[in-house]
């Protein structure tokens, strides 16, 4: 297996594992919006120290600043904000299903707007992972048009994140430097959005603070850089499809560690997603 694909799968595993820790953080007195802010903000001192030790120049080249801000705000912060807004109107399962339409969106955008040849295997893989997501997610909650639109927008913004990183050339920036700026801008954006509605809750238990720090390090120093390297080596379409290993990880670990139910439809969905991943690997 090529190293780019390994990076993407490892990144997806990290992103799929951290929600297991997040459940303990939530029970310690906080919410998703606060954890999103902490996930980005808590890693900044460590990231800065690593950059200084490695003597990585933090200055941005001409034109890079605008691209980094666009990637961080639209591709990262707005994606997460829209998803959390959707949770307030529709079920978490339905919101997640609509969010995870993004692999198919990426493949279609690459084919239609960038005239990339996807190949039969990649197109079949995109369809398989989309069907798989629909199967193993709980979509029984009552829907709301606004919530559904927000969830779809979260997937569209994340598709933008993957595509823009690939097409703008930002994937060639040093991965730790890009991670630092994304985390910095994302933390400020989420903070400003959450502050007026008093959605930030910092009265947390000591265990919750520790686990929030662990999540921040795992995502910011491992998950995000691995994803950036994966996009660099494999491109946007493959990155979008392989990132669907994330919900599989969350569902399977949730069943194994937390005793969460896993239906036959869920198992079939996981199998279809894995089949899509295999098609990408052998394509």
Automatic annotation (TrEMBL):
Superkingdom to which the source organism belongs: Bacteria
Any single Gene Ontology cellular-component annotation: membrane
Gene3D superfamilies named among the record's database cross-references: 1.10.3730.20
Keyword Magnesium appears in the UniProt entry: no
Domain EamA: 3-136, 146-280
SUPFAM superfamilies according to UniProt: Multidrug resistance efflux transporter EmrE
Transmembrane segments: 38-56, 68-87, 93-114, 123-139, 145-163, 175-196, 208-227, 239-258, 264-280
UniProt-listed InterPro entries: EamA_dom, EmrE-like
Tagged with keyword Cytoplasm: no
Keywords: Membrane, Transmembrane, Transmembrane helix
Family: Belongs to the EamA transporter family.
Stated name of the protein: EamA family transporter
Organism listed in the record: Candidatus Avimonoglobus intestinipullorum
Lineage start: Bacteria, Bacillati, Bacillota, Clostridia, Eubacteriales
